[in-house]
Design goal:
Layout (H helix, E strand, L loop, with lengths): L3 E7 L6 H9 L5 E5 L8 H11 L2 E5 L15 H17 L5 E3 L7 H8 L8 E3 L4 E4 L2 E4 L5 H11 L2 E5 H11 L3 H9 L5 E4 L21 H7 L5 E4 L10 H21 L1
Helix pairs in contact: 1-2, 4-5, 6-7, 8-9
């Protein structure tokens, strides 16, 4: 079992650039998955300095619903495509290992597919979603929250797949499915990228808890995430000054992986 381990940051997290450099040089992670906040193109040069100074590689996570990008909303078509142009700049300038989009929230699957087909000159992956997300005044349903929807997107848009294990667990709980069986089924769609975090194993809502703060059987999850190349840790950040909590999460995950590999010898 082998993955490249990713550190998830946002493009406005200038405060993490220095500790990210230190952790990369110490071998704590292999690449940064950078969430490209809209209207933050001026930050590219600062992140690019990590590549120039110590060889950090980047992947890009496109803005999603919370930042205004929603492929399922036909009224946002022009806005969505304009944000996609910013994402392309991030991906090209940072020579992204991969680029990820979310399908949308609250709209129709066919609209998401229609809009994603309009993205030109950018190879990207689509990420599976929880079935529901909390919204002001209630909840909203996500596009790309069930197996059939993800498979249809992959078939029709012809993109790569990012399997978010935490999202899959929440979706399975909403659908009344066994979460581990559901993760295994999604892995049959041959994801190239994985996202992972902890949570209450019975939750329907994503939480991004530190490893060990929830009760997901992470060793069991990792045994199901077979075949992909990249594994981005999506746990919360406790400090705005350092990434000490990420060190613990990275070591926690690496220990599980090392135990698997020892048993395989």
């Amino acid at each position: 079992m082998s993955y490249k381990i990713g550190l998830k940051l946002w493009s406005l997290n200038e405060n993490y650039i220095s500790p990210a450099k230190e952790l990369f040089e110490r071998g704590v992670y292999d690449y940064i998955e950078l969430y490209a906040v809209p209207n933050s193109l001026d930050m590219i040069a600062k992140w690019k300095s990590l590549t120039r100074n110590c060889g950090v590689k980047f992947a890009i996570h496109a803005p999603h619903f919370s930042s205004g990008l929603d492929f399922s909303n036909p009224n946002k078509l022009n806005y969505n495509l304009n944000l996609c142009e910013e994402v392309k700049i991030y991906s090209n300038e940072l020579e992204a290992l991969y680029t990820i989009f979310h399908p949308g929230i609250g709209g129709e699957l066919l609209e998401s597919i229609r809009q994603m087909k309009m993205i030109k000159d950018l190879k990207f992956a689509i990420e599976n979603k929880p079935y529901i997300v909390p919204m002001e005044g209630g909840t909203a349903f996500c596009v790309g929250a069930d197996f059939d929807s993800i498979k249809r997107i992959l078939d029709e848009v012809e993109c790569d797949f990012c399997l978010d294990a935490g999202h899959a667990l929440c979706s399975a709980n909403f659908q009344g499915l066994n979460p581990y069986d559901y993760i295994a089924k999604l892995n049959g769609l041959k994801p190239r990228i994985y996202h992972i975090s902890d949570n209450n194993v019975e939750s329907k809502f994503d939480a991004h808890l530190h490893f060990g703060d929830g009760n997901i059987e992470l060793d069991r999850v990792l045994s199901l995430l077979v075949g992909g190349e990249f594994l981005a840790i999506e746990t919360i950040k406790d400090s705005k000054e350092n990434l000490d909590d990420f060190i613990k999460d990275s070591n926690y995950l690496k220990n599980i992986i090392a135990n698997f590999n020892d048993k395989a010898l």
